Amino acid sequence: MRPVSTASFPAAIGHLALVLLLAAGCRDTAAPPEEERPRLPTADEVREELAPLAFDAFVERSFRILLRRSPESVVELGLERELDVGRTFLDDVSDAFAAETRAQQGVVLELLKGHDRAALSRTQQVTYDVYAWWLEERQRDARFEAQDYRINPTLASVNGGMELFFTDVHPLRDVADVESYVGRLGRVAEKLGQVEETLRRQEAAGVRLPQPLLRIVRPQLQSLSTMSPHSTPFYASLLERGTFLSGPDRERLLGRAEELVRTSVQPAYASLARLLAAQEPLAPTALGVWQLPDGEAYYAHTLRRHVTADVTAEELHQLGLRELEALHREMRARFTALGFPAGETIAQGLERAAQAGGTVPASQVVSTYTLIIEQAQARLGEAFDLVPSAAVEVVGGEAGGFYVPPSLDGSRPGAFFAAATRPEARFGMRTLAYHEAVPGHHLQLGVAQDLALPLVRRVVGFTGSTEGWALYAERLASELGWYQDDALGDVGRLQAEAFRAARLVVDTGIHDRRWTQAQAIQFMQDNVGFSQGAANGQVIRYAAWPGQATAYMTGALRLRALRERVRTTKGEAFELKAFHRAVLSHGSLPLELLERVVAADLGLP
């Protein structure tokens, strides 16, 4: 699942109508009158409005007030008709706006705790706990605002998230949508300017992006600033998706977009690239956040933020080593059953399995994934009686391996983004489809959107729960026999699971044990069978996004342990569908809360 790119509204929303009025008769490339940003309430006004409300009304109204502070999230969720965020605005990522947001979140948390939890219904109590957990984490974030790498080579960055917002999230259904898209292009420079201010403040505090990350992201930014405006993703996406434009509208809007990219967007990227170039000589060469001011506490915070339970780096490191040992034993048994030569390393056996499975041509990647998903959907009834109403589609492109949830207004289905510009190893495709679509992310997050619950519980995601569920779904598919005719595919599943176990070791190795980049790369190669380039790509991700990668295996193991606890307690009365219903029917929950809520649902002591 893709990360949320908004700094002012840091919820994992998977995981981002009114017509912009132009000057009458305008049909040239002159800029329309600048839209006035809708007024947002102050913290005092928020308190005054929310204080008298009963619990349910308070939760709904307060979350919408906070959500309005992130126009990109409102657009992604398809709530523009409901929540006025203007038609041409991007998220404000300035330090001042972030401080105002935290103040309002603090007010909401204070008022939430003013409600008598004991007097609430059970459903309301779960809502209380979820909302409190999320708001408290946002307050804890404030201590570490200087440590987060706003610009980095991953989608978990302002640059990566904003590009995805324009190319794949922002709707382009009619001329009004294009007007909004073009208007938002005019705000890119302002947003990147705010990021530059933050980077300078972080630099003064002794925080710079490590050199290995800088040397990847700076050329990316520089390239975008110097290429032809028509080749930039911002213009190319509009041209590709705006095929309905015609006549004067097409000439005017495409002309205006080209002008904005050339005169505003690209210069802003060039300025950001220059700042990073200036920072590079003094940037650290090591990867880990241990070297940052308050780095040890920051890493502990990121682990709790993503795992959503109290864990230590040492516990996670050892857990990863134990799981890898068990998974390697499973792999070797599969290698023997497949007739592979004895005595080969794990990496050699996985390479042999990949070669035996062959590749799918780039032109067939999307159709192959689509078929896998259709076959999985046809078998969901074996283990589920809750399925999402929204469809899921496979979107081919240069980058892949992530999922974006559907919009709440039904205008956009769930989307599994698949890399479709090169051949793909067949033996790993089933597992990736199960993780990103069904029974993984699309099933869980799509069901959540359909629930009769407060908005906060339908759209906020917690990494331990969401990524834990998707990894749980990979193994569940094997348990249900979905790999019965695909022994090599099951080896691919084991490689994917070993990959998540290795993440526990490498993430904590980098940020807690002070591993070098070379150490981390070698570990991934030896234990997961990745090429040096693929292993380095993963190491760069963990360095840029500390702690996130530890949530997958941790969450999956807790779900499996919870299921076994239910099975042991209920014996022959255990029902797999009932267990899954209990997990899915509450939306995404922090792991420590999920275990408690599901146990109560199923009558466990």
Question: How would you characterize this protein structure?
Answer:
InterPro entries: DUF885. It comes from Hyalangium rubrum. This protein is mainly α and 605 residues long. The model is unreliable at 3-32 (pLDDT under 50). A 3-stranded mixed β-sheet has the order 2-4-3, covered by helices on one side. The chain contains 25 helices and 5 strands. Helix 6 (158-169) runs parallel beside helix 10 (233-241), helix 13 runs antiparallel to helix 20 (487-511) and helix 15 packs across helix 16. It has helices at 43-50, 55-67, 71-77, 95-113, 122-141, 158-169, 175-185, 188-204, 211-226, 233-241, 247-279, 295-307, 313-337, 346-357, 365-378, 429-436, 441-450, 455-459, 463-479, 487-511, 517-528, 532-544, 551-570, 576-584, 591-601, and strands spanning 359-360, 392-397, 402-404, 414-419, 424-425. The protein folds into 3 domains: 34-145, no CATH class; 149-285; 301-552, no CATH class.
